UniProtKB/TrEMBL annotation:
Compartments, record wording: Cell inner membrane
4-aspartylphosphate: residues carrying this PTM: D553
Identification of the protein by name: histidine kinase
UniProt KW Oxidoreductase keyword: no
Keyword field: Kinase, Phosphoprotein, Transferase
GO molecular function: histidine phosphotransfer kinase activity; phosphorelay sensor kinase activity
PROSITE patterns the record matches: HIS_KIN (PS50109), PAS (PS50112), RESPONSE_REGULATORY (PS50110)
Reactions catalysed according to its record: ATP + protein L-histidine = ADP + protein N-phospho-L-histidine
EC number: 2.7.13.3
Residues annotated as domain Histidine kinase: 266-481
Membrane-topology annotation of the record: Multi-pass membrane protein
Length: 628
């Protein structure tokens, strides 16, 4: 038969026998030695009070002495190890009556590991609870059946109804659904979630009171298996309100930009159309008359050119402000542009007794810029240097490399100079400083326009000036490599046809009609011209005449030029008739739109007679597209 002592000898639980009267340990198993660190020989005979250090243990033995022995099951206590450390234990005390008296059998196990696990678990739970409570989102946890397991305080703040654990989420959301604008979509979404426990998704819902919630959900898993769902509820009402305000602001900005574009197109046409007649007839007078009339015609033409320049400055500045100015950046030879600008301003300088010259320029001086606009900027600075100079003064142009990757083009004059106070206002549109306000012609927008152009080309404009000494205005622009050599073929237009040709001119402006009629009658008498004042009248006349060419104004009283062109293309009799667009609108996108529509060429008002005749001759003789 198995010796019962073997059971205690090989048991991992410490077992000690304590004599009740003496409270002395009279027996112990090897596990007791392992637990407490005392050799068995030393342990036997020790007082139990030398080992037990818990306050409840002191009370226990006191109660035993007064009331007798009593059993204790699975209570926690602390034992003192031989090394002085305290050990958390779980113990059970059973009472046995023996011949030598009452014996208490104590079985004890070290629960230090489990206590550490409990403490770590409590710490993790506390940290999780603190995290849930500190989040700005409402958190809701359910099991797979939709029963509410947990939620944080934030959810009760943003959720409009009372929440209770153990309640079904379906009951909670039934109330919520009644307040939604997207009721059916929300119900379908919720059904999909509980049909697929692995599904992660979001739903944005709008309440009838104007609040907007974003509800996100993901599965709660344990050992890779779903055990429930976690919902986060985020109040995005302010975000949606901000987005709506931004959309309104964007729409308003787009409307404003469109209004600017429409204004530019309209004003360009309205200003250039009467100027077309003024400059056109002035050219006719210059070409046909002699003596006094020819001189007067030249005066009119020069005044018209000046007015055209002012109009262009205003419209160009407005184009930049509206973001409608298109640039064509390329590698430009600075020396060539400076040479051209000096030639163009030589007469103005000579009239005022001003000497204008350029210092030698490096052969590798190329910049990345729009050539037409760069020339426009430079001409503006040179003309200012001439206008605001002293009698017999000087204007000098030179180029330096002030910083790597940029060339600085400087225009220096010997004028009266500009005070520091005036320099601060110099680049403000329509602001003309000093005596220039009344004594010298100009709009006060040239420098502002020049600076904006430079910024668009990744450059800068600046100045240095000293009163009674002179000023230096400079343009910094990015350096560029010299362009590759290219063979440019020169195309000579075909000979002017002597055959009779029919031209239909659809134009509502009477003076513009008379101008084209006068030009063609005197210089192209073989071209027979017919005029229509409206789009519909022009369509009828085109169908009747089937002309060789149609000149079509782009802004008619009853339709745009593009609309009339489309109608012409739908008619079998006129679908192959070439059309030339005429307009005072010179915005690049408007010109490109017309050419993409199918117009053979585009003439900007006020028209130059030579350019207009050349374009008409080329289209009639070749039927080719002539952009401008």
């Amino acid at each position: 038969m198995l010796d019962p002592q073997l059971l205690s000898q090989y048991c991992d639980t410490a077992i000690m026998a304590v004599h009740l009267d003496s409270e002395t340990i009279i027996a112990a198993n090897p596990a007791s030695e392992t637990l407490l660190g005392y050799p068995l020989a030393q342990l036997i005979g020790m007082k139990i009070a030398d080992i037990e250090v818990g306050l409840q243990d002191v009370f226990f033995w006191e109660d035993v002495r007064q009331c007798g022995a009593q059993e204790v099951l699975h209570v926690e206590s602390e034992y003192r190890h031989q090394n002085g450390q305290f050990l958390p234990v779980s113990k059970t005390i059973r009472v046995v009556q023996q011949a030598e008296g009452v014996i208490c059998i104590i079985s004890a196990s070290n629960i230090g590991a489990s206590k550490r696990l409990e403490e770590e678990s409590a710490r993790s739970s506390s940290l999780l609870a603190a995290t849930l409570e500190s989040t700005v989102d409402g958190i809701l946890v359910t099991d797979l059946d939709g029963r509410i397991i947990n939620f944080n305080h934030r959810l009760t703040q943003i959720w409009p109804w009372q929440i209770q654990t153990e309640a079904k989420i379906s009951t909670l959301l039934l109330e919520f659904k009644t307040q939604l604008q997207e009721r059916e979509q929300f119900a379908d979404w919720l059904t999909d979630l509980y049909h697929d426990p692995y599904l992660e998704d979001k739903f944005t819902c709008s309440l009838l009171d104007g609040r907007v919630y974003e509800i996100a959900t993901c599965p709660q898993q344990y050992r890779d298996a779903p055990i429930g769902r976690v919902f986060s509820v985020h109040d995005i009402s302010e975000l949606k309100a901000t987005e709506a305000a931004l959309r309104i602001a964007r729409d308003q900005a787009q409307t404003a930009n469109k209004a600017k574009s429409d204004f530019l197109a309209h004003m360009s046409h309205e200003l250039r159309t009467p100027l077309n007649a003024i400059m056109g007839f002035a050219q006719v007078i210059e070409a046909d008359d002699e003596g006094q009339h020819q001189i007067l015609g030249s005066y009119i033409h020069k005044a018209g050119q000046h007015l055209l320049g002012l109009i262009n400055e205003v419209l160009d500045l407005a184009s930049i402000e509206a973001g409608k100015l298109a640039l064509r950046l390329e590698s430009i030879n600075v020396a060539e542009v400076i040479h051209d600008c000096i030639e163009l301003t030589q007469f103005l300088a000579k009239d005022k007794g001003i000497t204008i010259a350029a210092q030698p320029i490096a052969a590798n001086c190329f910049i990345q810029a729009d050539q037409r606009r760069f020339k426009q900027m430079l001409l503006n600075l040179i003309s200012n240097a001439i206008k605001y100079n002293r009698p017999a003064g000087k204007v000098t142009l030179f180029v330096t490399q002030e910083q790597a990757g940029h060339w600085r083009i400087t225009v220096s004059d010997t004028g009266v100079g500009i005070s520091e106070q005036d320099q601060r206002k110099l680049f403000t549109p329509f602001n003309r400083v000093g005596d220039a306000q009344t004594q010298i012609e100009g709009t006060g927008i040239g420098l502002a326009f020049t600076r904006k152009l430079a910024l668009l080309m990744k450059g800068q404009v600046g100045l240095s000036s000293e009163v009674n000494v002179g000023s230096q205005f400079w343009i910094d622009l990015p350096a560029a490599l010299a362009p590759d050599s290219a063979i440019v073929a020169l195309h000579t237009p075909s000979a002017i046809t002597t055959d009779t040709r029919t031209i239909l001119y659809i134009e509502d402006d009477l003076l513009s009609q008379k101008l084209i009629q006068n030009i063609l009658a005197k210089q192209r008498p073989q071209y027979q011209i017919f005029v229509a004042k409206t789009g519909q009248e022009g369509l009828a006349l085109a169908h009747q005449l089937v002309p060789d060419l149609i000149l079509l104004d782009q802004q008619l009283p009853d339709a745009t030029g593009a609309m009339i062109y489309e109608q012409l293309q739908l008619n079998e009799r006129t679908c192959n008739t070439p059309c030339i667009a005429l307009s005072g609108n010179t915005l690049p996108e408007q010109i490109n739109d017309a050419l993409r529509t199918g117009f053979s060429a585009y003439l900007s008002k006020p028209v130059q007679i030579s350019q207009a005749l050349l374009t008409i001759d080329q289209v009639l003789s070749q039927g080719k597209h002539i952009p401008r």
